[in-house]
Amino acid sequence: MRDKYGWANLDAYLKHIKKDLDYIFEHDLVRAYCQHDWSSIRNDPDMNLTRQVIEYALEKGIKVMSYREYYYREAVKNGKIV
User: Fold this and answer.
1) CB of 55 within 8 A of CB of 49?
2) pLDDT-derived band at 40, boundaries 50, 70, 90
3) What does the alpha-carbon distance between residue 25 and residue 70 come to, in Å, rounded to a whole number?
4) Which of 82 and 29 is assigned the larger pLDDT?
5) Gap between the Cα atoms of 67 and 74, Å rounded
6) Fewest Cβ atoms closer than 10 Å to its Cβ: which of 9, 10, 48, 50?
7) Which of 63, 47, 62, 45 lies closest to 14, judged by CA?
8) pLDDT confidence tier of residue 71, bands split at 50, 70 and 90
9) For the chain, what is the mean pLDDT?
10) Backbone region of residue 28 per phi and psi (left: phi > 0; alpha: psi in -120 to 50; beta: other values)
11) For 12-23, what is each residue's pLDDT tens digit?
């Protein structure tokens, strides 16, 4: 997406992410969202974009968790861990 929106156009990037989150919510899907440390603060040193993404997901009722939490939950659900 950075190829399309660049690094400075945070509003357009957030709008795109919100559309993705709406789709995920409507279809009860899982999405792995990753930000690298260097990209999280590029043109957004206070990480406002990250905060807005998380807040929007939570407002939609999307569960936000770490990869570890997700894989542990799935392992328990599938009988891999008792």
Assistant:
1) no
2) confident
3) 17
4) 29
5) 11
6) 48
7) 47
8) very high
9) 92
10) left
11) 999 999 999 999
| Rounded CA Rg of the chain | 15
pLDDT of residue 48: 94
> Please, what sign has the CA dihedral across residues 10, 11, 12, 16?
positive
Say how many CA atoms lie within 13 Å of 12 toward its Cβ. 9
The size of the chain, in residues, is: 82
CA 69 – CA 47 distance, rounded (Å)? 23
DSSP category for residue 43: T
Residue type, 13: Y
In Å, what is the CA distance from 11 to each residue of 2, 26, 53, 74? 12, 22, 11, 34
Per-residue pLDDT at 2 exceeds 90? no
> How far, in Å, CA of 62 to CA of 55, rounded?
10
User: What token pair was written down for 48?
Assistant: 């406002």
